[in-house]
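Researcher: Quick sanity check before group meeting.
Model: Go ahead. Protein one:
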Amino acid sequence: MKSKVKKLGDLTSPIVRFAADVQEAEEALDTKDSQYKRRVLARALFAMIEGTVYFLKQTTLSTGSSIRGKLKVAEFVLLMEETPELKSNGQVYTKTRFIPLEDNLKFLARMMNEVFGVEIQLGVGTLIWHEFQTALSIRNRITHPKSEDDFSISDSEVETMKHVQGWFCQITADAVNGIVSFIGKHPPTKGAVERVQ
């Protein structure tokens, strides 16, 4: 198994880059508003969310797999984002598994709690969760447009994306702080995430 997160810097470095892209997109939009820049903000926001979820899952996989009995087989496979398949000759291979982002976030929050003891507050069922779903539909609409109108993002939709950015940045901060706290209380074992920056 290839683990993409072996030390804390492997987690934090890409997250900082994702956030910097969103910040740059927002600053460009604030400097001179255009529909193009609104679409760039939407794409950067969801690149940050999806990329951060991936790296947090890799961190959870790395640490969880180093603790005997911590992960169930199904959790291990879902953290890897793969599905095992069987060839007609009896050989096993894996396929990349697509997990809808909403489900992936809920799964990540549960796994972070199980492995690191971190309580991630997604706010499912609240206004911010609804705004996240709205922002996701905006990103999907501009990525797979069915009409010219689908390219347009309204002022209120821009505000929704900004709210979602703040919400997700708080989730990320809580997750990383929880991981750092866990590492401080548990000396790293082989395969676990080490506190090296």
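Researcher: Fine. The other one?
Model: Protein two, sequence then structure:
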Amino acid sequence: MSGYAIPSTLDDVLDLIATGEWRVLAGGTDFYPAHVDAVVRDNVLDISQVDSLAGISRTDKHWRIGASATWTDVIEADFPTAFDGLKEAAREVGGEQIQNAGTLAGNLCNASPAADGVPPLLTLDASVELSSKKGVREIPLSAFIHGNRQTALKADELMTAIIIPCDRDAARSRFLKLGARKYLVISIVMVSTLVSVSTSGEIQEARVAVGSCSGVAQRLLSLEKALLGQPASIDLSSFIERQQLSLLSPIDDVRASAGYRLDAAEELVRRALADCLSSF
């Protein structure tokens, strides 16, 4: 028989996880649709009442997005311009009801190749905080997601926060998503970019991440390196080449062919970078 628990403290949550197998539930926007015609057989651990997991805060060194912070919290947060891409992604995650309930941490733990939050968080150099009765560890988001529905989360751990350094607040960022329609759709391709420009007008930092084109969203490191030192007025129409997307490994599925995904990714990267650079 399945069980249900709704503790009010993090210690109680970690005690339960340490002593049994639980399906952690926050917003439930993935959990409930998966059980429309199915009996819930898992032990469900509802963390929505743990106040210490809620909200978004900032220290001198980093931003902290709590595990139960919602997409709406992100949209309404007083973030600097570097977070514009993350806000744009948040607005693409379903309708307002989903944004009000769904959490960024749940999106990461679900580890879908089409998870909207992953590309912008990769460009922000995000890490995840994982807690258990044994202690707390922090690992880069790039090391947390191992593949489709596969993460580094251990059985006795809970993701308690997303940690983002605040050393690039003045950067500009964008998120672009291509789907079969404009809204409420799983992406065919999504791209997030983050760029900062020096006072002399040269690109001093560039980060480009592409999702839905491989088992895990990928940073395009060769393109990022090539962009460094280029003028902000660079003509991107000929600068971006297909070989710079070589880390991607798209598949053919019901939404698009692999070839179409690569073509779309190249164009979205070009557009997102151009939008970032035009704001300087």
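Researcher: One line on it for the slide.
Model: The CA atoms of residues 17 and 141 lie 22 Å apart.
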